[in-house]
Design brief:
Number of strands: 8
Low-confidence stretches: 1-9
Mean pLDDT: 83
Distance between the termini: 82 Å
CATH superfamily of the largest domain: Amino acid/polyamine transporter I
Shape: elongated
Number of helices: 29
CATH class of the largest domain: Mainly Alpha
Strand content: 5-15%
Number of domains: 2
Largest sheet: 6 strands, mixed
Strand order of the largest sheet: 5-6-4-2-7-8
CATH architecture of the largest domain: Up-down Bundle
CATH topology of the largest domain: Amino acid/polyamine transporter I
């Protein structure tokens, strides 16, 4: 897809676009009514003050955090239509502030960790509604149902979010409509619940009530999907998200206020008294005959809640690879539409993580302890990066200062309220986040170390010897066309190891030498190339300029470039063997790739040993260079090349003379 078409799709507002946005973007934040009010009330007796204070906190959190920070401000920080914390980092790294990589890696890891807890808690909270009308259903049976639903969800990811969006969109429209209708029915019995719009009730709960501040940990659950909403921007576009959010927010608030009206009518009782161990105001406020229907619709919506984080995780990993934060992994493009990608390894790792969460925590009420801690860290990191984005955009300093201060206070307050959950399960997502941070930091540092020890030489110094080698009949011909992939950014430069491979490892005579470099651009969709003749008919350099969402199929792209050059009369690719040349037979093309290994001659510090050994271990499980570039096995030669870090000092040895007879 061209960059222009992509931008048009992103700026396009349509009914179909709005509907698909419902199906892809809002699952996570849209299913929060399943557990937020239940978590706020907890095991305490229902009190009007707690209910109004809790709803007031939810109202202002959705207004300030989700609407203002994410939907209005952060969605403006898009990288050619792509969103997410790595897209934001890609924008602000132009400020040359080196330490910004820290919040980027912490935030990205925390969001991925959240992707492992969101599907289990959403699906479990929905399925547990069965106990409302079928109390004998055991926890083990619910776990089995949840795992089966998750397996189905992760299996259909390979068909792309276009299919998922079309299938899920009508269900989410039904879900949000149901939320609004259920809320209106309860609100009609008690309009006084709208008093909660007054922020004083939130203040009263937080400052006066003994347990008030820690209720924030439960309130935060209402906005956890905001970060996923930003990450998924590339799938639907900013305009569609902003317009559809108006409908979504109204439906969510109607349901929260409706649950509040129901709870106030039951003042003095506990949720256990009203609905047993798994008493949930979301299901309790439904008519008995409607509860089974409500559970089915809620379960379908919970499956979609997981979709937002899964597709967001794919986007995140794709951008992490471009920024050298993650090992190369296989990416599939299920459809031709923008933003559609599928990463099999990440998909099934997420699934295994989700199953582990379900088996460890067993119930959604227990999962709440693990939920939120990782994502609030991600939100704080986004706020830090957003500060630099606003500076870069030359926004007035007093506006930036006020805005960032407000959000740091809000998010640090959420963090303080959630921290007590750490020992009850919050440590699980934090451990996952730390593992992911370690992978990203190790890969990034190893790449920097590797790059700093790559020796670059001038091609001009080798032009004469390469031209002479090309016609040296005393050396057997290696290939008609010899192609090397190079990381050297400048046209006039090449890695020393490439020259070593051609001239010394085993002299490789070829009629034409090709050096190919791939530039991954900051924009998602672009395919361009440039050809630089270094020595006519002997040495050429090809630079590809590819968007970060474009598949890297060098084999096919290289053939297209050759066709273009032949058509323009720039190169003759027929075989130079006399008999083949007479019959216009095209010469053979051979690609040479070098795989590095850590040389035993390297003199490393302990830290460097840990980083580099971890890097080469991860490299074994990552995509090979050959597959990463989309090259055919038949035309590729892999060469091992030692990487020497801190070459040891010269050993001064004294020669002993041979004894004379």
């Amino acid at each position: 897809m061209s960059s222009q078409n992509h931008n048009q799709l992103h700026s396009k507002l349509s009914a179909a676009g709005l509907l698909i946005t419902l199906g892809i973007i809002y699952g996570d934040i849209g299913t929060s009514p399943l557990y937020v009010m239940k978590s706020i009330i907890g095991g305490y007796a229902i009190s009007r003050d707690i209910v109004l204070g809790g709803i007031s906190c939810v109202f202002w959190t959705l207004t300030l955090q989700t609407t203002l920070k994410y939907v209005i401000i952060t969605l403006s920080a898009d990288n050619h239509g792509e969103g997410g914390i790595f897209a934001l980092y890609a924008l602000v790294k132009r400020t040359k502030v080196q330490w910004l990589i820290v919040p980027a890696i912490i935030g990205g890891s925390a969001l991925l960790a959240d992707g492992i807890i969101t599907p289990p808690i959403s699906v479990s909270a929905a399925v547990e509604g069965i106990k409302t009308f079928y109390p004998s259903m055991t926890t083990e049976n619910i776990q089995i149902i949840v795992i089966c639903i998750l397996f189905l969800l992760f299996t259909i990811q390979q068909f792309g979010s276009k299919l998922v969006g079309k299938f899920f969109a009508p269900i989410m429209l039904l879900w949000f409509t149901m939320l609004g209708v259920l809320g209106i029915i309860q609100i009609s019995n008690d309009f006084s619940v709208f008093n909660a719009i007054n922020p004083y009730y939130a203040y009263e709960l937080l400052m006066i009530h003994p347990e008030g501040f820690f209720v924030l940990g439960a309130v935060f659950l209402c906005t956890t999907g905001a970060e996923a909403l930003y990450s998924d921007m590339g799938h639907c576009g900013r305009k569609n998200i902003r317009i559809s959010w108006i409908f979504v927010k109204i439906m969510l608030l109607l349901n929260y206020f409706g649950q509040g009206a129901y709870l106030i009518s039951q003042e003095g009782k506990t949720l256990i008294q009203l609905g047993g161990v798994d008493g949930n105001p979301f299901y309790l406020m439904m008519e008995t005959w409607f509860q089974p229907i409500g559970v089915i619709i809620a379960t379908m919506a919970a499956v979609i809640a997981s979709q937002a984080l899964i597709s967001g995780s794919f986007t995140l990993i794709n951008e992490a690879m471009r920024l050298n934060f993650w090992p190369k992994v296989k990416i599939k493009y299920p459809t031709e539409l923008k933003g559609q990608l599928y990463i099999p390894s990440i998909n099934w790792l997420l699934f295994l993580g989700c199953v582990g969460i379900v088996l460890y925590f067993k119930k959604s009420s227990e999962m709440e302890h693990a939920y939120g801690l990782a994502i609030v860290l991600c939100m704080i990191m986004t706020t830090v990066l957003l500060n630099f984005y606003l500076i870069m955009k030359r926004v007035k300093w007093y506006f930036i200062g006020a805005l960032i201060s407000i959000y740091l206070v809000i998010e640090l307050s959420f963090l303080a309220a959630i921290l007590p959950k750490f020992i009850h399960g919050g440590f699980v997502t934090l451990i996952i986040a730390i593992v992911l941070i370690s992978i990203m930091a190790t890969w990034y540092m190893a790449k920097k170390i590797s790059h700093s020890y790559t020796k670059i030489v001038k091609i001009n110094d080798y032009k004469k010897v390469l031209a002479e080698l090309s016609v040296d009949l005393s050396i057997p011909k290696y290939a008609t066309h010899l192609v090397y992939m190079t990381n050297a950014n400048r046209v006039e430069e090449i890695e020393e190891k490439v020259m070593y491979s051609i001239l010394q490892k085993r002299p490789k005579r070829a009629d034409i030498y090709w050096f190919v470099h791939v530039n991954i651009l900051n924009e998602p969709y672009k395919k361009e190339f440039r050809v630089t003749p270094i020595v006519i008919d002997d040495i050429y350099r090809i630079d590809f300029y590819l968007g970060f969402r474009e598949p890297t199929k060098i084999n096919l792209m290289f053939k297209e470039v050759i066709k273009d050059m032949v058509k323009n009369g720039e190169v003759d690719i027929t075989s130079r063997y006399e008999s083949l040349n007479k019959n216009n037979i095209i010469g053979d093309f051979k690609f040479v790739l070098s795989e590095k290994f850590l040389s035993n001659d390297s003199d490393l510090t302990f830290f460097e040993k840990v980083v580099m050994n971890s890097y080469f271990l991860m490299k074994k499980f990552s995509l090979s260079e050959q597959k990463g570039f989309g090259l055919d096995n038949s035309s590729v030669k892999i060469e091992q090349f030692p990487m020497v870090l801190h070459a040891p000092e010269i050993i001064n040895m004294k020669r002993r003379e041979c004894p004379v007879d």
